[in-house]
């Protein structure tokens, strides 16, 4: 169940809060400290090592969309229950969209089109993490396999515990990774490192992940990881929400366009945002040597 401010005057926010409180089958969404704007989205199928089931692919974008609309949400921590972060896509489970799509009818063209639609829907489910306007911080422990790496790659900041391992297993399953890892990882760790991981299917440790830039911080234990990520998220949540969301939007836009196009985009963005009340408050607080009080969304 998700905690949150009750009685919101914003109907959309109240509806989002109500839907979060209804809960999820594969996720646990919570706001443990109502004094902060930090929400945790936890993969919550520990008995299955948090393998991504059809229900998970439906619920991840739903949760991200709700948090995107919720004014009290300023930062999101994406974590996992149990000893491992994620075992990748659940294979052979009931309702698997890939199996169902590939077995429809006898027409190979219809089967191929159904499979393509299923893949695009799964891709879109993970892109929802990236699309959420609020920063998403991954907290990885234990094994992070295949689709789990794709989930992590869609996050804005990635941290892990020292026991974490990462592996792109698809090549060993005779398939091409298709949920975004091959597109996002070269931008995160560089083409050479991404090719090494994707073509060999080798498992890397937390420290090697740190060295290549897959994660930015490594903590000694799961307990320290949870505390460290909560601190990062809280620090972000205390900043101007407009500045944080704008920074994420510009970073993503600049990643996918030329430098010139990225500069033009941020100039257009700031033509409006530099007139915000938060900027006036930040300058006033700096001059008066006090903590700023930023506006609500």
TrEMBL record:
Q: Where is the secretion signal located?
A: none
GO biological process annotation, one example:
fatty acid metabolic process
GO MF annotation, one:
isomerase activity
- Say yes or no: keyword Acetylation present: yes
Q: What is its main location?
A: other
| Pathway per the UniProt entry | Lipid metabolism; fatty acid beta-oxidation
Q: Where in the cell is it found?
A: Peroxisome
For this protein, the parts annotated as crossing the membrane are none
GO CC, alphabetical = peroxisome
What are the UniProt keywords, alphabetically? Acetylation, Fatty acid metabolism, Isomerase, Lipid metabolism, Peroxisome
What single Pfam family name could you report for this chain, choosing any that match? ECH_1
Q: Which family does it belong to?
A: Belongs to the enoyl-CoA hydratase/isomerase family.
The record's PANTHER family line, in alphabetical order, gives: DELTA(3,5)-DELTA(2,4)-DIENOYL-COA ISOMERASE, MITOCHONDRIAL (PTHR43149:SF1), ENOYL-COA HYDRATASE (PTHR43149)
Q: What is this protein called?
A: Uncharacterized protein
Q: What is the lineage of its organism?
A: Eukaryota, Viridiplantae, Streptophyta, Embryophyta, Tracheophyta
